[in-house]
Write a structure and sequence with these properties.
Strand content: under 5%
Order of helices and strands: HHHHHHH
Helix content: over 70%
Number of helices: 7
Shape: globular
Structural class: mainly alpha
Length: about 170
C-alpha cells in the first residue's frame, strides 16, 4: 500500500486528465509553500527524498502492473520537478528573495520541465526507452536537469540583457 501511495504521490497520479502535469503542479505548490513558510532547502531535499522513494516504490508497482510506465505513477514527475526548481530556489534563497516575488523562479521550471518531459529530447527520450524503473525515473530526472539549466540561462539573459533595458 505504501509503494502505491508514494508512486501516485498520495493519490495525485489518479487525477485526470494529464496525471503527470497534476503531479508536477502539486510538486510546485508544495515546493513554493516549503520555500516560503518552512525552509527553502526543503525543495532540493525533497528532490533527493522523492528520487530515493521513487527508486524504492516504482519497481514494486511495476511488478504488479501490465503497463511499462503507468501514467498514474507520478513520483518521477515530482522528483524531476523539484530538481528543476532547485536550480532557481537555491540562488533565490541565497539572496533572501521571496519565490513569490520572483515568480518566474517556479513558473519557468514548471513549464520547461513539462516541455522536456512531454517532448523527450535526446537523453530524456533515451532514458524513457530503457523501460523499467530506471527508464521511469531517469527520463524525468533528465527533464528536470534540462529544465533547471535552461531556467538559469533564461534568468541570466533576463537579468543581464533585458532588465538593464527596462
Amino acid at each position: 500500500i505504501m509503494d502505491k501511495a508514494i508512486a501516485t504521490f498520495f493519490g495525485i497520479g489518479h487525477l485526470r486528465p494529464a496525471p503527470g502535469t497534476w503531479g508536477s503542479a502539486a510538486a510546485v505548490v508544495l515546493g513554493v509553500a516549503a520555500y516560503e513558510w518552512l525552509h527553502p532547502m526543503l525543495v532540493p531535499a525533497g528532490f533527493v527524498l522523492a528520487t530515493l522513494l521513487g527508486f524504492w516504490a516504482v519497481p514494486r508497482v511495476l511488478a504488479d502492473s501490465a503497463e511499462g510506465d503507468p501514467s498514474w505513477v507520478v513520483i518521477d514527475e515530482v522528483a524531476g520537478q523539484w530538481l528543476a526548481m532547485s536550480f532557481t530556489v537555491i540562488p533565490l534563497a541565497q539572496k533572501g528573495v521571496s519565490i513569490l516575488a520572483a515568480w518566474p523562479g517556479f513558473v519557468a521550471p514548471f513549464l520547461l520541465f513539462r516541455l522536456f518531459d512531454i517532448w523527450k529530447p535526446w537523453l530524456v527520450g533515451r532514458a524513457d526507452r530503457r523501460g523499467g524503473t530506471l527508464g521511469v525515473m531517469a527520463d524525468d530526472l533528465w527533464a528536470g536537469l534540462f529544465a533547471g539549466v535552461v531556467s538559469v540561462i533564461l534568468a541570466g539573459l533576463y537579468h543581464a540583457v533585458l532588465e538593464p533595458m527596462l
